[in-house]
Structure formats: structure tokens, C-alpha cells
């Protein structure tokens, strides 16, 4: 079974090739990890952190024939996913220096979540510098050039 076929059956976000992009944290709060309605990452051959963290580790009881079959399908999809994602050029094998949780895509310095957080921090710092300079000009302590 391919990872996409397994996601079609078991992933809560998968809706006919589209991804709803919702993740549930340990405290029960909801978070969006991507825009809703976008194409499923697995369908485009990309890694999906939700699939890795929530769908593949899912506990499946092996106490019945159906449970045994589902567990076997999960194991097969997991193996296919790991093989596909570890293909040459797919991953660098490095972890994100920001969170130390996710592998970096080739040519990236941060994972998407850490990159977004870094951009927010840089934007806040730029705004603070702008406001400080503006306040100095308004109070007359510095003259405009």
C-alpha cells in the first residue's frame, strides 16, 4: 500500500486529494499547519509532518483479522514513505537548528515552522527600530538629514 492510499483511508485531513491542514496539539488546541484546501503533500511527493507524527504512529490493535490487515497496511505504507523520503536529494539528513525536530529539505536553512517564526521575529525587530527612530525625530533629539 502506498503512503497516499494509506492517507486516503486513515488521515483525518485527507479529503479527496485536498488537505484541510488542521493539527491538534497535546492540550487539545487546534492549529493550522498549511492553508486548507491545498493539494495533499503526499500526492505531490513531498514530506508531510502531520502524516509522520499523527497517522503513521497510530496505534492499531492486532487482535482481529481486520486489525492485523490494517497494521500490515500501515507498516507497508510506513516503509514506502521512509524509502520515498530518503531517496537521493529528498532530504539532507540534517535537523532544523531552530527546533531540532524536523529534517531540513535540500537547500533550506530552517524548517517551514521555524522559518515563519524567524520572519515574525525579524519583522518585530524592524518595527521596533523604526518606531525608536521615529520617536527620536519627533522629540527633536535627532534631526532629519
Task: Provide an overview of this structure.
This protein has 145 residues and is α+β, with helices and mostly antiparallel strands. It has two domains: 1-90, no CATH class; 98-145, no CATH class. 44% of the residues lie in helices and 14% in strands. It has four helices and seven strands. It has helices at residues 3-10, 49-55, 65-85, 112-139, and strands spanning 14-15, 18-19, 22-24, 30-32, 38-39, 91-95, 103-105. The strands form three sheets. A three-stranded antiparallel sheet has the order 1-2-5. Strands 3-4 form a two-stranded antiparallel ribbon. Strands 6-7 form a two-stranded antiparallel ribbon. α1 packs across α3. The longest helix is centred in the last third of the chain and has 28 residues, at 112-139. The mean pLDDT is 83.
Amino acid at each position: 500500500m502506498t503512503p497516499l492510499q494509506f492517507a486516503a483511508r486513515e488521515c483525518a485531513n485527507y479529503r479527496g486529494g485536498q488537505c484541510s491542514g488542521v493539527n491538534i496539539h497535546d492540550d487539545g488546541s487546534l492549529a493550522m499547519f498549511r492553508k486548507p484546501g491545498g493539494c495533499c503533500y503526499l500526492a505531490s511527493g513531498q514530506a508531510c509532518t502531520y502524516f509522520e507524527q499523527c497517522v503513521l504512529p497510530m496505534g492499531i490493535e492486532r487482535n482481529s483479522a481486520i486489525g492485523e490487515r490494517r497494521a500490515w497496511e500501515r507498516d507497508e505504507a510506513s516503509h514506502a514513505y521512509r524509502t520515498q523520503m530518503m531517496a537521493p536529494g529528498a532530504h539532507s539528513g540534517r535537523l532544523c537548528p531552530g527546533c531540532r525536530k524536523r529534517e531540513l529539505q535540500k537547500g533550506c536553512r530552517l524548517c517551514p515552522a521555524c522559518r515563519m517564526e524567524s520572519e515574525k521575529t525579524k519583522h518585530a525587530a524592524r518595527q521596533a527600530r523604526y518606531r525608536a527612530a521615529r520617536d527620536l525625530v519627533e522629540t527633536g533629539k535627532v534631526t532629519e538629514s
